[in-house]
Amino acid sequence: xxxxxxxxxxxxxxxxxxxxxxxxxxxxxxxxxxxxxxxxxxxxxxxxxxxxxxxxxxxxxxxxxxxxxxxxxxxxxxxxxxxxxxxxxxxxxxxxxxxxxxxxxxxxxxxxxxxxxxxxxxxxxxxxxxxxxxxxxxxxxxxxxxxxxxxxxxxxxxxxxxxxxxxxxxxxxxxxxxxxxxxxxxxxxxxxxxxxxxxxxxxxxxxxxxxxxxxxxxxxxxxxxxxxxxxxxxxxxxxxxxxxxxxxxxxxxxxxxxxxxxxxxxxxxxxxxxxxxxxxxxxxxxxxxxxxxxxxxxxxxxxxxxxx
Length: 308
Ligand code: CP
Ligand code: NVA
Fold this sequence. Notes:
The chain is an alpha/beta fold. The protein has two domains: 9-130 and 295-307, 3-Layer(aba) Sandwich (Rossmann fold), CATH 3.40.50.1370; 134-291, Rossmann fold, CATH 3.40.50.1370. It has helices at residues 14-33, 56-66, 76-79, 87-97, 108-117, 132-146, 163-175, 191-204, 214-217, 238-245, 252-257, 278-281, 288-306, and strands spanning 44-49, 70-75, 100-104, 122-124, 153-157, 178-182, 208-211, 223-226, 263-266. The strands form two sheets. It has a five-stranded parallel β-sheet. The radius of gyration is 19 Å and the shape is globular. The structure holds phosphoric acid mono(formamide)ester and norvaline. Norvaline (NVA) binds at residues 126, 162-164, 227-228, 231-232, 267.
């Protein structure tokens, strides 16, 4: 069987996603019952990170170890992705040593190139376009908290054009989650990603809405999700973004507009007082640390799925 990559959630079928969730649960069950389960024994996984990470890198490395594998962290200043040598040559070389590669890049094109020339599976650990491992774990979290995903109303408030928003849009369309994105007109998701999500939603029945009215967007929401206004690599735009996104803060007024039992999610890192108030982030509606914990669980499911 040819290798499979995870560059976007659309690299998976809906049945693959449920399979990953079931694998995640079965791995957790094995851990809880003390069963020895080392599917990555004698496997080496490389991690190339062009940007900082607190959650994704550590949870992947710990997960690899827990599954019996070995992780090799490749620092940006050492590997010099695309500078010391071409991405094609890095991909071909590392494929001789490693069994799987995890990469966090600035440009999505770079990770596509890496995957194209690597003969081993490549996982996108965040690019400018997508963060598939994050949203897989987020939908798993929603499933665990709500007991279902289909028909739930997820509202994302913030930068509609970033990796989290665009990935949530696609995975919601796949899984039958109704998604509303409230974002300024300048920060809409890419046209082609909206079109793809709309096409996918015909099968799942997911309703997609993009609006510029954050308060209205929260009406009847089961989940309110936000992310930073300025993503890694956009630091020069921070001042401009702070002004434009100011009306798109997740605060008590927004939370009160959602359903009484709504959940607040944030992929983290969060900036209290910007995209979300401390009051809401630290409220009992917030599940952000459970969300962070589940990255470790679901990423193990993803690793085992891609290694089969
Ligand atoms: N949520 C997330 O990807 O966090 P890190 O940037 O810390 O990995
Ligand atoms: N949109 C954010 C996500 C961080 C996990 C960024 O790219 O910086």
